[in-house]
Structure formats: C-alpha cells, structure tokens
Amino acid sequence: MKLTAKFVENVSEAGKYYDQHGLFLHVRPSGAKKWLQRYTFQGRRREIGLGSAKIVSVATARKNAHQNLVLVSEGIDPIEDKKQDSVIPKFEVAALKVYEDNRPTWRNAKHAAQFITTLETYAFPVIGSMSVKEINSSHILRILSPIWVTKAETAKRVRQRLSTVFKYCVAQQWRTDDPANIAIVEALPNPKRKVQHRKSISYNDVSDFIETVSKSSAGLSTKLGLEFLILTATRSGEVRNARWNEVNGSIWTIPAERMKAGVAHRIPLPSRCIEILEEAQTISQGSGFIFEGTKPNKPLSENTFNKLMKELGLEVHAHGFRTSFRTWTQEKTNYPREIAEAALAHSLRDKAEAAYARSDLLEKRAEMMEAWAQFISADAPEVINIRA
Predict the structure, then answer these.
(1) Are 138 and 179 in contact (CB under 8 A)?
(2) The pTM of the whole model exceeds 0.70
(3) How many CB atoms lie under 10 A from the CB of residue 83?
(4) Domain limits of the chain?
C-alpha cells in the first residue's frame, strides 16, 4: 500500500516502510526518517537517498523516484547523474567564469566591465543562485520583460550576454540548449523605438562653430582636440587617446586596438592639423598623449568635448561632425563614395568588393581632407572650386 503523509508524520517504530517505484521510508532508532530508493541498473542493485522526510514530502519523494526510473530506462544511472549535477555551477559562477576567460580578449575595458555589471544588475537577482541546468525560458522572460521596452538597448545586450553564458554551459555539457537565444525575442513586446541619431550641425555652420569654441573659456588642449576631431572626421576616443608616437610627418596612424573595426587606420593630416600639433607640443607635459587632460599623465576625459558644447548651449554631439563631413562630401564635392567612406574608416558591406579593395586610398583622401580643412577654415573664400 502507498504511504500517506499522515503515516509518515506519525510513524516512530524503526524499520523500512515501502511505497512504490522501489521507494521506501527508513525510520532509524533515533527517530530520524529518510527517503531511499532501490533500483537495478545494468544488472546491479543500487540504492539512492532522496532526502529527509522532514523536508521532502511523500508526494515529492514519489515523484523523484519515478523520475529516477525514467533515467534508468534511458540508460542513465541516477546516482551518477546526481554526482554530475553536483559539479554543475550556479549561474553566477558560470557567468563570472565566462567574464574572466573573455576579459583579456575584449579591446574595450569599459565594455568588458559592462558585461558583468549588467548581469549583476538584471540577471543575478533572478537566476544567480540557480543551477545553470535548472534555468528555462520563463526565467529569461522574468529578467528581460521589465526592461525590454523602457531600456531597450540595455535589454538587448543583457540577452546577448545571457546567451554567451549559456552557450558556454552547452559547450561544458552542463545543459543542452540556450534558453536566451534570439527566439526569446518573439515572446517579448515590440519596443517600436525610433533610432536616435547623434546630433550634428550643417557643414555650412562648422566654421562658425570652431570660432565659437576658440573664443570660449575652455582649456587650450580641449579646443585643439575638438578642432582636430572635426578636421579628421574621427571619433572622440580616437582623438582623446591620440599619442605623439602615432604621428609620422603628416600621417596619423590609429592602432587597431583603438579602432571600432579593429583595423589600423591611416589619416592624412591637412595643414591646419599640423599647426594644431605644433601648438599642442608647446603645452605638452610629456605624458605621451597629444591632447592632455587636467590629471597628470592622462588624456582628455571621455565627456570633455560634449560637456564643452553643452556649456556653450550648442545642440550638437562630437560624433555628429562625422555626419557634417560626410554630408559635405555628398553635396559639395565630386569625391567618390569609397573615398569618403574610407576617410570615416567604414568597412565595405559588399564582401566581394571588400576582398578586392586592398588600398586605403591615402593620396586621394589627403586631397579631400585638405579641401575639408579649407572649407571650414574661418578665412576660407566664399566659393571653393573642388575637383573642377
């Protein structure tokens, strides 16, 4: 006969009381009660513990015993399976392992830190203490649903980072699937957000902008750095972290580790940039950085340029000057698209075309960048004949 919850609670006489599926309750002389199960695996009789009767109910013990028999029917020894479960880590442990293993390969220290901090903020409170084997898609939805619409970009990255951890777990044979794969997005609402482009100004207004900055109370290093950024159509981090040893004559080579695409980028410097370098040299403190910040041996801080423009009441983002430059090439010049795109260090989308395009078009870009410098200079003529 099956054991009842009341019997399990009241029985006190030492002995073994059988249920089904090989399950029995072992009552010790001390009064301690424990669930055990006997089964046969590959002709060998085995016995596995299923927990204390004070904690595990008869219904749960019966369910676990049945699951063990299912494992046996699949050729899996429940005892060995339990040993395997004991080495499967909690999600937090697995995530930290993935982070430590991959950190040396990430070029951007800030992005590397964000990998683990976003998981600590959004994932660990929900699944951090769970075995990676126990996590399913419902847990992933609990993590992503609260931020999928309100913090769409963050949620997207959290899902990607969750997926990275689960792919590692699959490779370690701790589980067989990735519950955070891209298919989970179909169960989430469509944020329907508009792409927010970084604010830029018309190429016709860049000259006035530079003059406004030059008359501001900002530090000389900041003024020179921002003008250098505009003249070279580069990104803020590429300019702020520029070093003297990267400049050879009129060529500035940004190393691959500082480029978004991971490829070294040569930039032909127009004459105004050479003047800026000469002026920056006069205030150099010997840190190695061209545009030094206020802290010793440090470059300009990350938000220096945008902070200055905000203080001046200008609705523009430092990255937006790349748009100003690109629009100028389209509307005011006859330079081919590939030359302008090369100046912005954009990769060719057509893989076949990229395979044959080995030149960085340096000489043609030099002509274009000098024309850009002349166009935005304060004393430029009203009409410029470009590549007539």
Answers:
(1) no
(2) no
(3) 10
(4) 5-85, 91-187, 203-376
Domain 5-85 has CATH 3.40.50.10490: no
Residues in contact with 121: Cβ distance below 8 Å, sequence separation at least 6, in sequence order: none
Dihedral sign of CA atoms 361, 366, 371, 376 in order: positive
**Do the two domains 91-187 and 203-376 of this chain adopt the same fold?**
no
- DSSP per-residue string spanning 231-273: HHT--HHHHHT-BGGGEETTEEEE-GGGSTTSS-EEEEPPHHH
Is residue 290 within 8 A of residue 244, CB to CB? The reply is: yes
Dump pLDDT digits (tens) for 249-264.
999 999 988 888 788 9
Q: 10 Å Cβ neighbour count for 220?
A: 13
Q: pLDDT value at position 359?
A: 58
Computed on alpha carbons and rounded to an integer, the radius of gyration of the chain in Å comes to 33
Architecture of domain 91-187: Orthogonal Bundle (1.10)
- Domain 203-376: top CATH class: mainly alpha
- Going by DSSP bridges, is the β-strand pair 33-41/23-27 parallel, antiparallel, or unpaired? antiparallel
Residues in CB range of 92: below 8 A, 6 or more apart? 124, 128, 129
The 10s digit of each residue's pLDDT in 345-371 is 886 554 444 443 445 789 999 999 999
